[in-house]
Amino acid sequence: MLAICIECSHQRGMGHLFRALNLISTLEEKREPWLLLVNQDETALSVLREKKITPVIVDLEDTSSDWEGKLIREREITVWLNDRLHTGIETAEHVKAAGIPLFTIDDMGMGAALADGNFASLIFEGKSIIPGKRVYAGSEYLILNPEIAGYRRKRDQLESILVTLGGSDTYGVTLPVIDFLKNREKETGLHKRVSILLGPGSRIRAEAERAIEGTGFTLL
C-alpha cells in the first residue's frame, strides 16, 4: 500500500494535488493499492469529490501525536510518499520509526534528509545539495498527465496561446502576463487566439475578467 501525503492551500498551491491524481491514475492502471492523505482544504476536497476519490483527511499541523505511525499500522501502508516541499523532521522520524521506506518530491525540508529517496525533477540548484539518501534528479522524473503527449508536435508558426499558471496562481502572475500579451498585440498588430485558464484555487477571476475586456481573449 502506497500512502501519498499532500498539502494543499492557496499559499502552497494545487500542484501537489494534480500530481497525486496523475500518479493515482497510473497506480489504478497497474492495480496497485494506494491511499491519499490530504489536509482540510475545501478546494482540494471539491476536486477530489468530482473525481470520486475519497481521501483520508489529516491534520498536518500535528507533529507530536504520531498519526503517521498509527495510519501505517491501521492501513498496512508499506511505502510513504510525502509531497509537501518541506518535510518536517517529526514526520520523517515517525514514518521511519514505523519501519517503512519514505520518499519525497522536490523536497528541501529537514525531514527529507531521512528519506530513502528524493525525486527532484524541479530542483535546479545542483544534485549535491539536495537532501535524501538517494536523489533522483532530472525532468524524466516529472509526473505528468499522459494526455499531454497527444498534443506534442512540431509547430512552424504561432497560432494560439494558452496561459495557465497552476491550480492557484498564488501571486496572481496571470494578470501581468495578460498585460504583456495585450501590449504585444498593440506593438505588433498581430492578433492570436489567447486562452486564459484559471485553476480551481485561483482568486483573481474578477480581475482577469476586467483585464481581458475588449481583447478577444478567452477566460476559462
In words, what does this structure look like?
This protein is α/β, with parallel strands linked by helices. It folds into two domains: 146 residues, Rossmann fold; 66 residues, no CATH class. Helix content is 29%, strand content 18%. It is built from six helices and ten strands; from the N terminus they run βαβαβαβαββββαβαβ. The strands form two sheets. A seven-stranded parallel β-sheet has the order 3-2-1-4-5-6-7. It has a three-stranded parallel β-sheet with strand order 8-9-10, covered by helices on one side. Helix 3 packs parallel to helix 4. The longest helix has 15 residues. The radius of gyration is 20 Å and the shape is elongated. It starts with a strand and ends with a strand.
